[in-house]
Structures are given as structure tokens and as C-alpha cells.
Amino acid sequence: xxxxxxxxxxxxxxxxxxxxxxxxxxxxxxxxxxxxxxxxxxxxxxxxxxxxxxxxxxxxxxxxxxxxxxxxxxxxxxxxxxxxxxxxxxxxxxxxxxxxxxxxxxxxxxxxxxxxxxxxxxxxxxxxxxxxxxxxxxxxxxxxxxxxxxxxxxxxxxxxxxxxxxxxxxxxxxxxxxxxxxxxxxxxxxxxxxxxxxxxxxxxxxxxxxxxxxxxxxxxxxxxxxxxxxxxxxxxxxxxxxxxxxxxxxxxxxxxxxxxxxxxxxxxxxxxxxxxxxxxxxxxxxxxxxxxxxxxxxxxxxxxxxxxxxxxxxxxxxxxxxxxxxxxxxxxxxxxxxxxxxxxxxxxxxxxxxxxxxxxxxxxxxxxxxxxxxxxxxxxxxxxxxxxxxxxxxxxxxxxxxxxxxxxxxxxxxxxxxxxxx
Length: 422
Ligand code: GAL
Prior knowledge:
This protein is α/β, with parallel strands linked by helices. The protein has two domains: 2-277, TIM Barrel, CATH 3.20.20.70; 286-393, Sandwich (Immunoglobulin-like). The protein has twelve helices and 16 strands. An eight-stranded parallel β-sheet has the order 7-6-5-4-3-2-1-8. A six-stranded antiparallel β-sheet has the order 9-10-11-16-13-14. The protein has a two-stranded antiparallel sheet with strand order 12-15. It is elongated. It binds beta-D-galactopyranose. Beta-D-galactopyranose binds at residues 6, 41-42, 90-92, 119, 160, 183. It holds the Pfam family Melibiase_C. One of its GO terms (biological process) is carbohydrate metabolic process. InterPro entries: Aldolase_TIM, GH, Glyco_hydro_27, Glyco_hydro_b, Melibiase_C.
């Protein structure tokens, strides 16, 4: 969890912008909530390395240098984190780490950093790398291992190759997170597209590593953000809920000097953060029903007639495990309000014959008891995030019925069907 300068500032930030963000994060309880890494994304270096090959912090924007800024950040409970590129140049055109991996790790460490986001622009041509994308990430992974062997300090390694070569398959061999998509944007179609993409890679996330759904856009509304955002309050809640429950890194990406109280409420939702940071369960929630058609879960390989091959329509019904109960996410991907409901037994985590206490992770209170099903009316692009806990056997009036009616039978073999309660 942390902050990244890119979605809020793109290339235009300096030491005092950075410090103010950290001060606000500290004052508004976000540091306490767990946002402690501060990634100085692209555009913070001088254009050239120095005579001995070291990267140099931009002297105009960081006039007192990185170690001094790092100390000020540490005093607020925040640690600076590095951004670089595995190639010759960063995406913004500043020095990349190709051939300088260990040297750059030394520099970042001397700047108080132990976390690295590594981009994939300007990589060398094939006869030089003789590698695929996986292979072009190995020099830095090896340098991190060598640096750790020398110093006992292991950098957290965040891969950023935009999901081009299935990093969800191999990323965990090299680092702790891997971007699964192109740069997220502060509008709903982009958020929905990332959720759709993540709905096919949820299985890759566990304690060893995480699908990185990209820097949060929460706060980037009413023209705030770079590019200017237009997320509604409901969309921002849905966005944060999905990122938290799919166990993406939670990295703030907005200028906190400009945002409203709503933004702090969303970013500081401790109920969702505690699921994201669950010490016992590392897995993501998974879809149990797509929502827009009869398929339980969509498959992009099916013809559109079976699956609305529309990235703006991610799965709407999700469930997962946690230390605190069964997690349910219901997402209204429609452009208007709708009543949404599911039968408990649709999720592999909820048992037939039991009823469940329902806790709402946005209302922060228990909202009822679910018997057989649960319904909620959600606004356009709205979300419901629930924790369900076993509340005993179903009421006696349901005895002799079946939630899963297919081949449920009485002891004498007579099928219990149809059944009004499934
Ligand atoms: C992109 C990356 C962004 C940001 C940007 C900086 O490649 O996906 O997250 O780091 O480069 O130029």
C-alpha cells in the first residue's frame, strides 16, 4: 500500500508536492491505515547519468536531494520508493537501468528506498537482449538477489509490462506484483475494463505475489487528476472495492490537496483494507455469476452471442474467503440503478441449509440475516461489499426444501422439485 505520483501529477511534481502529500496522508489517517510506500514515478531524474554512471535526482525539483527528502518522509511514517525502467530510458525519456541494475539499487538504497517499480519502455533490440519480456526482467531480479545477499535488504519488486506477456504466469518468479493491463484512466469505462481483465487472472494472486490493477484513480473526479478525471462517488467506491477485494496493491494516485472528504472516506475504508491485507488469506475474490447473461462466469473465447464480449461489463457477483467471513462483492455494471440478488448457494463458500448474518463494509454495520438469498438495489455503477458469517441452521419452515434443486431428493428417492426458495 502506498502512493504513486503518476495519476495525480504525471511529470509535474517536486519535493514540496511530495512532502505535502505525505503530510496529508499522515494527518488524515492514511499512513496508519497502511499507505506507507511513496513511489516517485517517472520524471524525477536529471536527463543524463553523471560521469561515473550514477543517476542524479532532478536538481531543480529536488534541490535538497533525495536523502534529505527521505528523512522528512520517514518522520511522517512514509518511505520513498523508486521507479525505473529495464531499458535504456524510462517511458518519459529519463535514464533507464539497463546495464546499471546493481548501481541503481545502491543509489536507491542510499535514498532510503527498498521498493522498485520497473517499467518496460526502450528495451534493447533482440540481438542484445536475446530474451523475451520475462528474460528482460531477470537482470534486475538477479541484481536484487545479489544486493540482498550483500546487504540483507531485499527490494520489493513491482513489474510494469502492462500484461503483455502473461506476467500473471511468471511474475511471481521474479517479483511481488505485476501490472495486468495498460495505464488505468480516471473514468468508468477504464475501471470496468481493468476489472474485466482481472476477472480472468484472479487465480494468480496469493501471498507470493499480486496482480497489479494499477495506481488508484480514487479522488480523480471533477477534473482532478492527469488526465482530468470524472469518476462519480459510486464509481470511486466500486473501483476501490474491486481493487481491495481482488488483492491488488492499493496505491493512491491523486493530488490530496485538491480532493474532497469523500475521497478520504473511500481510501480509508478499514473494512476493505483489512480484507486486502488479510494475514491468513492471500487469494482474490472470484466471480460466481457474470450477471448479464445466463452463463455463470463469462469466457472471452466464447462467441459474443454467449458472452457479451464487452469489457465494460465485468462480472457482477463475486465471492471469496477471508479471516472475517465470506466476502461478497455485487457490482452494478449497468448505466442505471437496478435491483440485484443472488442465491446464497451460488457461491462455493456459502452452505445450503445455513443462514448468514450480513455485515455491510460500506455502511460498517450488520444489515440483516440472509436466508437462501440476498437482494440489494444499487445505483448505476454502484457496489455492495458484504461479509457473511454463519448464523445457524435455516429456519424450520424451510425444512424439507433444497436450495440446489438439481437431483436433491427425499430418503425414498423422490425428487424435491420444483422448489420456490432456490
Ligand atoms: C507507464 C506506466 C505508468 C507510468 C508511466 C511513466 O509505462 O505504465 O504507470 O509509470 O509509464 O512514464
